[in-house]
């Protein structure tokens, strides 16, 4: 329909343009009764009058009214929300941007619910933007509005998504900060709510802004490899389909599950097999974490088996299907994830596992997800059709109700809530604790009690007497006994491996009280002369800086710099999750790194002593770390073997400062068979 297209703006807000823009709005929202259309029309007129004379930022040259219209369309058409949300989206900037309409007017015309939502969005907007001193204030205000009406959150996510879709002409610094905020908070919240399609788009658009070169590489990899990956996946699905047909799925299921024979009866068990694609951001995250090439990531595309049955999907049913598949394909034992018995925080329910599939004489891995039709709809679009079921929102609301915490602690608590990848840890007493994935022994100790965390020196796992260090990463279903001692002295280094916000907050509070670290200073204090977050931070051989231990960027690599509380520039890889958090919460202390030409005639000559067990390729690995991974110039390398299969030697190399040299030492120590690395 022609009216479903957005009218072209010709530079004037004519009556004709106003009419056509409203037709565009009503054509692109959910069908609604005529009486509701009248309410929406009134809200549109109010928003049109409030924003008259305002234009959007950047190079769009559109009237501002197009923004609330698009936000309303996203909230309705793409998120599935109704009239109240549409009206609130249209009005979401009215209180902030115009003096024509006040709270009393909005409440009188549209009701108390709409006013509460609009006020919630306004409170957030007032402290964000260029003049904000603390981005965390924005997040805190948004979080605290959730128990009052979660639709504030829906409108903010829709608002962010539209801004991301129209950000081409915005300054690079603005794009980077907003994108980091999206990955740090908004994409995770969208996943928590169950808005999977929104989450994927926010992730990829943010990823493209944060790491344009890396994103471009992934697009090129996709063009090169995806056709082959899709063909391989489709061939697997054809074989899988044939397996299910040959096994006469209904009869086999009756044999597997005796108690369901009466339920199956004459029911026709329908199913479909579809393909689910990962976002570029998720693919890159896996490549980053596991050091994989693009074509080695096995679940770019997952196979989802969706059953349409007349009784609720449960664990026994899913496992019955699983065993049918396992009869035909070898499955990877440690790959099974049972999200049916313990659904994810956002309500995702499925049995997920990997199988081995031989394609063109090559062994490949295929991921399979088994779920009901209802669970598939929830996985894609959340609980939009189920007003009484919103597990993600309910979990957030319950955690924030009757809140008495400080603002910074609210953020920390919320950070743990929205981490949807979880594991389950057992205490020796049999209590089960839900923890974010990659939690360490120390995280669990702090979860049990702050004092236990502060005194933790290790743990025993699964009743073993072996000592596990406090920085060891825990696995799901493990039984963990925390070991403590009064002689333990917590240090700032513990922050390097803590995952949970609860543990980090508790440790920071202790370190501040003991004087080991200082309270973080305001965004404008203790910055290098001439530093500005919107300008590149230039690094040459004369610049003092430190290499971040979390991601270890090489000289010349795409990087960001964060100025810590002591005024020291810390250089991170541009994709580092830590720098994304800084961008999202302390953006005015963060900037893009511009590497100047490093003249190594000003670099210092260092000598490293190195010892270890000899093996084929160890010299190549040493050289690779120094010259390829860290981009350092070697002056000399000398290695000699001893009779007992050991080697020792030294390396001479140039480093522009001590921080870079220390990074070389750190990286060399990670090479297999290296026993000793130290400065001569």
Describe the structure.
- By secondary structure, the protein is of the alpha+beta class.
- The protein folds into five domains: 2-195, Orthogonal Bundle (Hypothetical protein af1432); 213-381, Beta Polymerase, domain 2; 421-513, Ubiquitin-like (UB roll) (Roll); 537-595, no CATH class; 600-679, ACT domain (Alpha-Beta Plaits, 2-Layer Sandwich).
- Helices cover 44% and strands 17% of the residues.
- The chain has 25 helices and 19 strands.
- The strands form five sheets. Strands 1, 2, 3, 4, 5 and 6 form a six-stranded mixed β-sheet that branches.
- The protein starts with 14 loop residues before the first helix and ends with a strand.
- The relative contact order is 0.06.
- The model is unreliable at 126-133 (pLDDT under 50).
Task: Summarize this entry quickly.
With 680 residues, the chain is α+β, with helices and mostly antiparallel strands.
Q: Notable features of this structure?
A:
680 residues; Hypothetical protein af1432; Beta Polymerase, domain 2; Ubiquitin-like (UB roll); 5 domains; six-stranded mixed sheet; five-stranded mixed sheet; globular
- Provide the structure class: alpha+beta
Mean pLDDT, to the nearest integer, reads 82
CATH topology of the largest domain: Hypothetical protein af1432
General shape: globular
Strand content is: 15-25%
Layout of helices and strands:
Elements: H1 15-27, H2 34-50, H3 66-78, H4 83-90, H5 94-97, H6 103-110, H7 112-126, H8 135-145, H9 151-165, H10 172-193, H11 196-210, H12 212-246, H13 249-256, H14 261-264, E1 270-277, H15 280-290, E2 301-308, H16 315-328, E3 330-331, E4 337-338, E5 351-359, E6 362-372, H17 373-381, H18 391-400, H19 407-417, E7 422-426, E8 432-436, H20 441-448, H21 450-454, E9 456-461, E10 480-484, H22 501-513, E11 537-539, E12 546-547, E13 559-563, E14 569-573, H23 577-585, E15 590-595, E16 604-613, H24 618-629, E17 634-641, E18 646-655, H25 658-669, E19 674-679
Parallel strand pairs: 2-6, 11-15, 12-14
Antiparallel strand pairs: 1-2, 3-5, 4-5, 5-6, 7-8, 9-10, 13-14, 13-15, 16-18, 16-19, 17-18
Helix pairs in contact: 2-4, 3-4, 3-9, 4-7, 6-7, 7-8, 7-9, 8-19, 9-10, 9-11, 10-11, 10-23, 11-12, 13-16, 18-19, 19-22, 20-22
């Amino acid at each position: 329909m022609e009216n479903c297209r957005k009218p072209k703006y010709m530079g004037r807000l004519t009556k004709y343009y106003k009419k056509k823009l409203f037709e565009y709005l009503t054509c692109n929202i959910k069908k609604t009764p005529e009486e509701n259309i009248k309410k929406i029309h009134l809200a549109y007129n109010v928003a049109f009058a409030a924003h008259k004379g305002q234009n959007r930022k950047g190079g769009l040259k559109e009237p501002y009214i197009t923004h609330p219209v698009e936000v309303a369309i996203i909230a309705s058409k793409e998120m599935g929300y109704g009239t109240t949300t549409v009206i609130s989206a249209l009005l979401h900037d009215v209180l902030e941007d115009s003096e024509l309409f006040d709270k009393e007017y909005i409440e009188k015309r549209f009701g108390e619910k709409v006013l509460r939502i609009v006020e919630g969005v306004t409170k957030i907007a007032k402290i964000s933007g260029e003049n904000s001193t603390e981005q965390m204030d924005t997040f805190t205000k948004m979080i605290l509005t959730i128990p009052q009406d979660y639709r504030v959150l829906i409108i903010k996510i829709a608002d962010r998504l539209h801004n991301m879709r129209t950000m081409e002409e915005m300054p690079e610094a603005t794009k980077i900060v907003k994108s980091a905020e999206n990955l740090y908070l908004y994409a995770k919240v969208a996943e928590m709510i169950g808005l999977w399609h929104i989450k994927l788009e926010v992730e990829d658009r943010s990823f493209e802004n944060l790491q344009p070169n890396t994103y471009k590489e992934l697009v090129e990899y996709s063009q090169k490899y995806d056709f082959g990956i899709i063909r391989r996946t489709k061939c697997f699905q054809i074989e899988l389909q044939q397996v299910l047909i040959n096994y006469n799925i209904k009869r086999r299921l009756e044999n597997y599950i005796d108690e369901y024979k009466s339920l199956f009866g004459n029911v026709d068990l329908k199913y479909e097999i579809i393909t689910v694609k990962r976002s570029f951001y998720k693919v890159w995250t896996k490549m980053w974490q596991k050091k994989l090439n693009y074509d080695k990531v096995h679940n770019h595309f997952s196979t989802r088996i969706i059953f349409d049955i007349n009784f609720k999907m449960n664990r026994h049913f899913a496992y019955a299907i699983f065993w049918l598949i396992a009869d035909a394909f070898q499955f990877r034992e440690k790959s099974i994830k049972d999200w049916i018995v313990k659904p994810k925080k956002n309500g995702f329910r499925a049995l997920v596992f990997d199988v081995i599939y031989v394609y063109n004489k090559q062994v490949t891995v295929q991921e399979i997800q088994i779920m009901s039709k209802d669970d598939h709809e929830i996985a894609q679009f959340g609980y939009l059709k189920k007003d009484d079921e919103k597990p993600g929102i309910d979990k957030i609301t319950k955690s924030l109700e009757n809140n008495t915490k400080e603002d910074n602690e609210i953020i920390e608590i919320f950070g743990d809530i929205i981490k949807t990848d979880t594991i389950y840890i057992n205490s020796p007493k049999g209590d089960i604790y839900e923890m974010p994935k990659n939690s360490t022994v120390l995280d669990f100790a702090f979860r049990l009690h702050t004092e236990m965390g502060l005194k933790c020196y290790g743990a025993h796992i699964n009743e073993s007497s072996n000592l596990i260090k406090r920085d060891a990463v825990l696995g799901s279903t493990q039984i963990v006994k925390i070991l403590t001692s009064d002689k333990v002295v917590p240090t700032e280094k513990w922050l390097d491996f803590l995952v949970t916000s609860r543990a980090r907050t508790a440790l920071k509070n202790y370190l501040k009280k003991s004087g080991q670290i200082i309270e973080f200073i305001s965004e404008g204090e203790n910055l290098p002369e001439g530093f500005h977050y919107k300008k590149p931070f230039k690094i040459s051989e004369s610049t003092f800086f430190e290499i971040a231990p979390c991601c270890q960027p090489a000289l010349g690599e795409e990087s960001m710099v964060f100025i810590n509380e002591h005024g020291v520039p810390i250089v991170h890889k541009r994709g580092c999750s830590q720098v994304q958090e800084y961008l999202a919460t302390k953006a005015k202390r963060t900037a893009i790194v511009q590497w100047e030409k490093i003249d190594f005639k000003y670099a210092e000559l260092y000598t490293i002593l190195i010892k270890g067990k000899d093996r084929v390729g160890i010299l190549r690995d040493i050289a690779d770390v120094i010259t390829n991974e860290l981009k350092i110039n070697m002056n000399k390398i000398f290695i000699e073997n001893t009779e007992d299969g050991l080697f020792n030697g030294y390396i001479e190399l140039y480093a522009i400062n001590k921080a870079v040299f220390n990074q070389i030492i750190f990286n060399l120590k990670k090479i297999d068979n290296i026993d000793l690395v130290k400065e001569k």
